[in-house]
Amino acid sequence: MSARLPLLVVLNGLALAVACASTPTPKPTAVVVDDAAADEDVNSARLCRIIADVDDAATRAGLGALRQRFDAAPATDRHAVFGAALALSKLEDRFRAFHEDGAAHPDSPVGALGECLVYADWKLRNESQQACNRARNLLGEHIAPVDVAQVKLLARTGDPAGAVAAADLALQKAPGCEALHLARAFAVASLGDVEASKAAWGAASEKVAGCFVCSLERAKLLESTEGRAAAAGEYERALKLAPDHADTLRRFAASVAGVDDVRALSAYSAAVDAGAKDFATLTAASRLAGRLALTPEQVDKALSFARRAVDAGKTDPDARRLVVQLAMKKGDHAAAETAARALLDLVPDDVVGHIALARAAMETGRLEQAVVHYDLAQAELSAGRTAGLDEGTVSAVRAERQGLLAQLMVDEATPPSGSADSVVKVTQRGLQKLWKERVKQNVSGGTLTVVVETDASGAVVEVLVKEGEVKDAALRAATVAWLRRANIKGGARRYTLDLSLL
Predict the structure, then answer these.
(1) Which of 1-15, 224-238, 318-332, 425-439 has the lowest mean pLDDT?
(2) Cβ neighbours, 10 Å, residue 194
(3) Which of 65, 172, 218, 318 is the most buried (most CB within 10 A)?
(4) Please, which residues have CB within 8 angstroms of residue 499's CB and are 6 or more apart in sequence?
(5) Torsion sign, CA atoms 291, 297, 301, 306
(6) How far apart are CA 248 and CA 61, in angstroms?
(7) What is the tens place of the pLDDT at every residue in 447-486?
């Protein structure tokens, strides 16, 4: 009779599948069985090691690579058959493989033990007990692998204290069973006692050679209790065992950032290469790369991280702001302007966006726009909304703005105020000094029509030069600058003002 997957397993198809992502490995080599176990179907100690290897590989996303090792072994190697089935990423596939093996080899414990473990993962007490009893009978005295399943079942069904007690009892009989030590550490961790968890993972790491999950979980506990820097060494140990594990690379990078930024950036880059696509990692990588960048190529690398972060968090302004800042650092005003407009669509008052637009406008001689965006940036800076800009950048922006106002001969100390007519007269007087200088350069005068909007207090909030004979960029920008500082009595209104420079 051909083996079939039981209906019960189909009904429990919602069981959580262990994630699997293969990491680069050398050419698969067969798992070698000890000579002492060569005449046995399977050896309990070897099964313990295989279960521990699979549990550890699942944490490091290395099930695929481990399965390749087992598949490379001879078909007669029953340990490898057990390992290959247990290393399948989906529990349904694991069960099917063990069920079929049990039907084909009824006198072997491989199928029964495998079903026992899968049922424990599925939290099915009755089915687990039946399969585990069969495995006990077939294993004889050495039942430590079955005890592993029982510990896991207790932990998964809400009795972690019972799981720890069961593990301790089983370890008295089989102190060398790696899988028991690992299952105990998982159970202790689920109890929530941080210090006990640290000790459990430390003890497991001493018993389970090359235990990646032991170092990773211990590092996380150190980070949560003593800070990131305290966990750096443990994260580094974990990376020696799984150098391409993206989350550990990210955590290690964060733990050494500010202490060894070069190593931190290298780790962030490796995390991204290993598949980290989350917003936080990409943003942190971009920010650090931008801070360390000394060449255009290095800025480009930081920009690449930032743009990928924008894709990961389209509604978050932080990555867009980084793109703007990095484009400015590179001196690419066109790219900075494009990115700034996208940023301001999200955050209309963002200071970095206005700085970028002001600088891009200055670069291309659009002085009216430069006046507006430097004024808007100054308003944000005066309100303390600096978006994390350092003091040097803030001082530079203020100096640039003052330099533009000086170039346009605008005196902020004497802003126009009063009636609309009075404001026009004061503005024209203020423009006279600049007008005299521009005439020396054969600049033509004439009239200008300007639309001005005020708020309830009479403060000008919008200035738009509509038309007129004056085409000189400096004179038009100076007109905008003077009127943006004006206050027109009469409350919130819209005015059309005519100015004349003859």
Answers:
(1) 1-15
(2) 13
(3) 218
(4) 424, 427, 428, 431, 447, 448, 449, 450, 468, 479
(5) positive
(6) 12
(7) 899 999 999 999 999 999 987 888 999 999 999 999 999 9
Q: What is the pLDDT of residues 403-430, one digit of tens each?
A: 999 999 999 999 999 999 999 999 999 9
Take residue 103 and report the two structure tokens written for it.
């039907």
Is the pLDDT confidence value at 1 over 50? no
What distance in Å separates the CA atoms of residue 237 and residue 226, rounded to the nearest whole number?
18
pLDDT in tens, 158-173: 999 999 999 999 999 9
Q: What are the Cα distances from residue 122, in Å, to 17, 119, 132, 155?
A: 10, 5, 14, 12
Helices of type H across 6-62? 7-11, 44-59
Residue 448 DSSP SS3: strand
Token pair 């894709």: residue = 311
Backbone angles phi, psi at 259, to 5 degrees: -110, -45
Length of the chain: 502
C-beta separation of 31 from 69 below 8 A: yes
Q: Would you call 459 helix, strand, or coil by DSSP?
A: strand
**Would you tell me how many other CB atoms lie within 10 Å of the CB of residue 300?**
14
Degrees, nearest 5: CA angle 470-413-352: 75
Give the residue from 263, 266, 262, 267 showing the smallest Cα distance to 250: 267
DSSP element (H, E) containing 417 = strand 417-418
308/243 Cα distance (integer angstroms):
23
The set of residues, in sequence order, having a beta carbon less than 8 Å from that of 40 and lying 6+ positions away, is none
Alpha-carbon distances of 453 from 82, 270, 378, 412, 485, rounded to whole Å? 79, 53, 20, 19, 12
Amino acid present at 59:
T
pTM of the model: 0.80
Q: Tell me, what's the pLDDT at 25?
A: 38
Residue 14 has pLDDT above 70, yes or no: no
Distance, in Å, from the CA atom of 280 to the CA atom of 312, rounded to the nearest integer, reads: 9
The secondary structure of residue 492, as a DSSP letter, is: S
pLDDT tens digits, one per residue of 69-98 = 999 999 999 999 999 999 999 999 999 999
Q: Is the dihedral of CA 401, 405, 411, 416 positive or negative?
A: negative
Strands (DSSP E) contained in 273-370 are none
Indicate the residue type of 111: G
Task: Give the count of alpha carbons within 13 A of 365, CB side only.
Answer: 5
User: Which whole-number Å values give the CA distances from 42 to 108, 138, 142, 172, 174, in the listed order?
Assistant: 8, 10, 11, 22, 16
Cα gap 41→45, rounded to integer Å: 13
User: Domains in the chain and their CATH numbers?
Assistant: 1-209 (1.25.40), 292-407 (1.25.40.10), 416-502 (3.30.1150)
Contacts of 76 (CB under 8 A, 6+ apart): none
Q: In 245-335, which ranges are E strands?
A: none
